[in-house]
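User: I've been trying to design a sequence by hand for this structure and keep getting stuck. Would you show me what you'd pick, starting by listing the structure so we're on the same page?

Assistant: Good idea, let's start from the same input. This is the structure you sent:
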């Protein structure tokens, strides 16, 4: 009887393992990056995955461009159904985007027993529960590292790296367009509209930037992270969403004077009464690392009970950074494709029968601190009226700044930072302050987080 070297035997088995065949839906910026990185790093990826991973079919309406990108090395079709129904394809990469046709194609792929990799945060935020249930029933994997924060491996960190922790909260700069705009407003003292046009000219903002500047894109991503962190269904429809269109350069300057930076944050937090899930401009102390994330970069801060605070930083978009995340998902699937479904990492980190229907708190029940800018007549007694209203609403003042009016001015700004209080208390106080005859216009309210 001849002894068999177990290491040599394992290498021999890997050598003859079937290659993973991949179909790509959409070969735009990220799709082209995925194809290029997979080709360039093919040997490195094979060594990690234990088998070849090859894109064999691409579906794109612009077949001429797709053929040019792939160099004619794969089948190119203009009908994505040919990919999801192809019997030889093991994994479908969905990079089409949107809620409609993308959902239909993903569900067809799952029904056909194919694993799915997607970068589509909008799809998962709105239809994730349905998609994961279908995948669970069919025993296939749905991987989505690229859906949140581009090349930053935050999904893997939450699902696997921090699995020993009871996650307490997450706060993330998860939209590069808005972070670029806020950085430019702070650096150059320009107003929002001016910087938005520049961002569009430079390619940081889309021709229609609504999803970015209104906070919807960040809310999609925050909803996914919240579900993974706390073991709940994806609940984008219950998120509070507020963008940066109302921000003024003057508020950014006042924040700086008080030692804060303003960032659009996606925040989710565990509380005794439920889960906070919100996106809005937020004052952060300038000495926090995340407050110094500038330009189009992303960063996610996660607080766990065992590990404490961990920060994940990097490019949140772009062809190859996002492709890095897509290919990481391909490798994960290649490693586990033959494993029993019950032994794979659950889609939302928690076992499917342990997903909890924890309520998402309405915004008026959220407790945080606030920045208030109030334009008032330069008269005696105005400040006393405002502080009385705040006291009546059980709001205590942490700091105050009053702009000295120029000689010819009859109005001035009062800036107030509050201690923590409920949103509904602030809503009531703002309504009472705006009713004062000595107050002009609307009170500017920006939430404040210490992130400590």
């Amino acid at each position: 009887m001849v002894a068999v070297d177990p290491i040599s035997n394992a290498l021999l088995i890997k050598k003859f393992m079937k290659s993973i065949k991949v179909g790509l839906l959409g070969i735009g910026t990220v799709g082209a990056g995925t194809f290029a990185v997979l080709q360039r790093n093919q040997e490195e990826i094979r060594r990690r995955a234990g088998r070849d991973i090859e894109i064999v079919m691409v579906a794109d309406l612009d077949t001429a461009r797709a053929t040019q990108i792939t160099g004619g090395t794969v089948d190119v079709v203009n009908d994505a159904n040919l990919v999801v129904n192809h019997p030889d394809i093991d994994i479908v990469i969905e990079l089409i985007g949107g809620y409609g046709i993308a959902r239909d194609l993903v569900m067809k792929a799952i029904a056909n027993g194919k694993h799915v990799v997607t970068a589509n945060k909008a799809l998962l935020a709105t239809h994730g529960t349905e998609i994961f249930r279908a995948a669970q029933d069919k025993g296939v994997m749905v991987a989505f590292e690229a859906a949140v924060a581009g090349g930053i491996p935050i999904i893997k960190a939450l699902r696997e790296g921090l699995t020993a922790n009871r996650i307490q909260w997450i706060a993330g700069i998860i939209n590069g367009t808005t972070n670029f705009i806020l950085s430019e407003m702070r650096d150059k003292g320009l107003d929002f509209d001016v910087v938005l046009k520049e961002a569009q000219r430079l390619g940081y903002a889309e021709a229609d930037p609504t999803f970015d500047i209104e906070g919807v894109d960040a809310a999609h991503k925050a909803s996914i992270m919240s579900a993974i962190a706390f073991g709940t269904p994806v609940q984008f429809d219950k998120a509070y969403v507020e963008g940066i269109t109302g921000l003024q350069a003057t508020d950014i300057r006042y924040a700086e004077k008080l030692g804060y930076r303003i960032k659009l944050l996606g925040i989710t937090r565990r509380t005794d009464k439920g889960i906070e899930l919100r996106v809005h401009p937020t004052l952060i102390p300038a000495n926090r690392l995340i407050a110094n994330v500038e330009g189009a970069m992303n960063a996610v801060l996660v607080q766990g009970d065992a590990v404490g605070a961990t920060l994940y930083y990097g490019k949140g978009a772009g062809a190859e950074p996002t492709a890095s995340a897509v290919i990481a998902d391909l490798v994960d699937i290649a490693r586990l494709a033959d494993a029993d479904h019950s032994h794979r990492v659950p889609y939302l980190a928690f076992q499917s029968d342990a997903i909890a229907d924890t309520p998402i708190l309405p915004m008026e029940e959220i407790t945080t601190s606030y920045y208030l800018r109030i334009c008032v007549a330069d008269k005696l007694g105005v400040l006393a009226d405002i502080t009385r209203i705040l006291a009546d609403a059980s709001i205590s003042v942490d700091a105050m700044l009053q702009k000295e009016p120029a000689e010819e001015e009859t109005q001035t700004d009062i800036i107030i930072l509050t201690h923590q209080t409920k949103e509904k208390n602030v809503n009531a106080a703002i309504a009472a302050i705006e009713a004062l005859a000595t107050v002009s216009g609307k009170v500017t309210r920006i939430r404040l987080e210490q992130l400590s």
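That's my pick for every position. To get oriented when you compare it with your attempt: The chain has three domains: 16-151+320-354, 154-314, 366-448. Residues 9-16 have pLDDT under 50 and may be disordered.
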